[in-house]
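Batch job 17 of 40 flagged for manual review because the log was empty.
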Amino acid sequence: MKICFAASSGGHYEQLLMLKPLMQKYDSFIVTEKTKYKSSVKGEKSYYLHQVNRKEKSFMLWLIVNSFKSLGIILKEKPDIIITTGVLAIVPMCLLMKLTGKKLIYIESFAKVSSPTETGKILYKYADQFYVQWESMKKFYPTAIYLGGIY
């Protein structure tokens, strides 16, 4: 089994790193955004997508670019599962994984206690497993799994 771990740089990425024991247990790789924040995990193959900000006029162009980059990564690596803590740049990869019959596991951000993320709202209906880190988030995601924080 091969697992793709995907997140933006920064806080989402730091949360994803809490799953490092899983990264070490399975054949895996990381997909994140290319930013000034230097993100890499020793011993883990990493791929970089363009950072997407929905407030910028060019965000649709970058989603298309990231879709093609994501397809290339999927064809090269052939992951069975994607585990993500979200962000807009990762959405194309998640949807492509689902289109190719693969599993999507989404973990809503630890920082979200009283409102859902935009990415969470998009991917909730596609996720095979959807986790929240606060029980209060079950009101937005009724079928989500609450197991506490990953910290």
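Reviewer: the log was empty due to a logging misconfiguration, but the result itself is present. The chain is about 30% helix and 25% strand. Unflagging and moving on to job 18.
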